[in-house]
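Protein: Small ribosomal subunit protein uS3c
Species: Saururus chinensis
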Amino acid sequence: MGKKINPLGFRLGANQNHRSVWFAQPKSYSRGLQEDEKIRDCINNYVQKNMKISSGFEGKGISHIEIQKKMDLIQVIIYMGSPNSLIEGRTRGIDELQTNVQKEFLSVNRRLNIAIIRVAKPYAQPTILAEHIALQLKNRVSFRKAMKSAIELTEQADTKGIQIQIAGRIDGKEIARVEWIREGRVPLQTIRAKIDHCSYTVRTIYGVLGIKIWIFVDEQ
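Structure follows.
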């Protein structure tokens, strides 16, 4: 009854891959995990700051970040919806980002290499879609209108189904509640169904709202 599990972890090995690929001894595993967290936080903060300066948009536009660690190299791949907004007008955009992460990381023995890959269908990515909804909620757009506009965007990206859930003090009501909407099929218990998922936190003037999105991409 009601056993909740992250859809990405549930499908690892079937149709989902790890976002971090490296090997460590049990004693140094926690240090490696903290390194990954620092790298991701540093990249997210840098991209959010520069996107806000260049386009006035407060979101990051990052779908996800993959980290691959080797003996003498850390390869970071950033999947973005619109990488041009980060790079345009800043010839040294990626170099500057690399320097910032290297400073935070303070690793002498390993080189850091950052690559940016453009996502073909940005609105088929739950994280980018959650940022789109969060921006509208911050601007006091009705939550139903925000959810419906997000569904329209995913329909253009040829997805098979989407479910959106928003929880918290919606529209400033004193009692927190959960509202959700579903369009198409979202078979969460079918392992062969590839489902992308994200949970996103947005701070509004009424308090913190949580956004969860499940997108049914394809079935193998």
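Remarks: The two ends are 27 Å apart (CA to CA).
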